[in-house]
Amino acid sequence: MELLKRKIDHDLTEWKNKKDHLPLIVKGARQIGKTLSIRQFAQQNYKNVIEINFALQKQYKSIFDNGFEVDTILKNISLLNPSFTFTEGDTLFFFDELQDCANCATSLKPFHLDGRYDVICSGSLMGINYQQIESNSVGFKEDYEEDITKYAGGLDKGKIHNVFRKIPAFLGRDNKKFQISKVADGARGREYVGTVDWLDNAGMINRCYCMETPELPLKGNYNPDQFKLYFRDTGLLIGSLDEEAQEDLRANKNFNTYKGAIYENIVADMLVKQGYSLFYYKNVKGTVEMDFFVRDANSLIPVEVKAIDGATRSLNSLIEKEQYSDIRYGIKLGYKNIGFNGKFYTFPYFLTFFLKRFLKEKISLPGCM
Description:
By secondary structure, this protein is an alpha/beta fold.
């Protein structure tokens, strides 16, 4: 089956062509096509592909029992499947569902030092701290909740569930800011330490921090204790609605109170996929607020997401007022064509994933600066 071209195809090819490349870890949400993309890349670029799924082929967890020397691992694989062939320089080991076999992560550094074979790992990584791995190795919604129960380790699984299940309620409000005190009756911050970090590291949420003032630099100008939480998979937000609301949404495109949240969630995910960190702003009086901020080489750029076409008072205020000196123009996403009115660019939602490229290349549009 021929797959549509995706960004990951370019990334995998670039990784392979890089001299002395490290073992690669591909992380992401469930059921987004990671395995199929890696498998197609492997078949097109290697003579031999050794694909092992630690969730489905549990017997292969034993291949690391005798240590992490590459030759020892190969011997143990051959004992389980004598038909595998290992051609030096032309063999890829594809270890899928890495989170089900922690020892596999330890083997990545030996594979790199050995240098004879390429290695790609994939999985949800919910049971493993992938940041630690990377340093060492140089029913849909129900599936996620099951993973929380399975992989949460020493943290209170019930409290992680509380946070996870409460995200849609926060997104459905005008003030989408996440507040631990409203997760459950009597909830206190010290009791929930690590829960949001766990969901973030597991690839289930995107965190959007509140800026203290709308000025550069972005990463040195936000409050780490004030943030919104978006799902990394908008399907989780849809799946959290009751069945009648889901049916109404699909049949009649009736988004009800979640219309703004759904569009914001989609845009947030597209920004993160381009490498952006997420930031928003709301002043103390609530008279100026902005959904997201990005930047180009010279300026801070407010990004407004409009579920319905309406006034853009905050966007105009941020662009026009002298006190926001780092802001020279803005971006408005909505049911719009591509354009520029002298103050901000307009784009339809679906072009958000081109935003970083547009800002970098400054594509010339009629009437633009």
